[in-house]
Amino acid sequence: MSHIPTREQVAQLIDHTLLKPEATAEQVAALAAEAGELGTYSICVSPNMLPVEVPEGVKVATVCGFPSGAHKAEVKAAEAARAVQDGADEVDMVVNLALVRDGRFDEVEAEIRAVRESCPTDGDHPVLLKVIIESAALTDEQIVACCEAAERVGADFVKTSTGFHPAGGASVEAVALMRKTVGDRLGVKASGGIRTAEAALAMVEAGASRLGLSGSRAVLDGLEG
């Protein structure tokens, strides 16, 4: 790596995440406070926890169709719209993996479009949309096709994983393939199983422009300056 980012720079790539279904409001409040202390870009919490107070400068991200993606498109769109109403700045949606496996990418695209249309891109509260493709469960061809579908309908990011799929989380190979596919036109978020500074830096080197971390402090404590 020619340039090792500083602790502060890596912190500004982090969605500080708590998506355990049993997470309490008290734990989410502690997450938000810690995000302010660590200087992370955002927190990412379940939609039932919205609205949530965050320190100044910290964004609020939430999830949609999570974690399985096995929801009707209109349900995902309604969930995203409600999350925006409740103050979400960013929405991370899970694609329908059955459609992906079946090669029905017109329907994958239509689903992403439905969520995109429920998350305004203009006005006073533009909302950023990330598309979770569960890369560890897909072939390279399916990863590429998902990324292309997300780009066609105006998503802002593609994201590797929910962190809940038994196939696994982010890999350097998947991040590199996703970055190659979307170029510099979309962001790439690496999420799932990134627990060390070394792993985080490897994802950034491979092309990740955002990191989904639940153990943000441990990762940042492994970095210099």
UniProtKB/TrEMBL annotation:
Name used for this protein in its record: Deoxyribose-phosphate aldolase
GO MF annotation: an example: deoxyribose-phosphate aldolase activity
Catalytic residue positions: 92, 159, 189
Biological pathway: Carbohydrate degradation; 2-deoxy-D-ribose 1-phosphate degradation; D-glyceraldehyde 3-phosphate and acetaldehyde from 2-deoxy-alpha-D-ribose 1-phosphate: step 2/2
Domain of life, per lineage: Bacteria
Subcellular localization, as worded in the UniProt entry: Cytoplasm
Catalytic activity entry: 2-deoxy-D-ribose 5-phosphate = D-glyceraldehyde 3-phosphate + acetaldehyde
EC number: 4.1.2.4
Family: Belongs to the DeoC/FbaB aldolase family. DeoC type 1 subfamily.
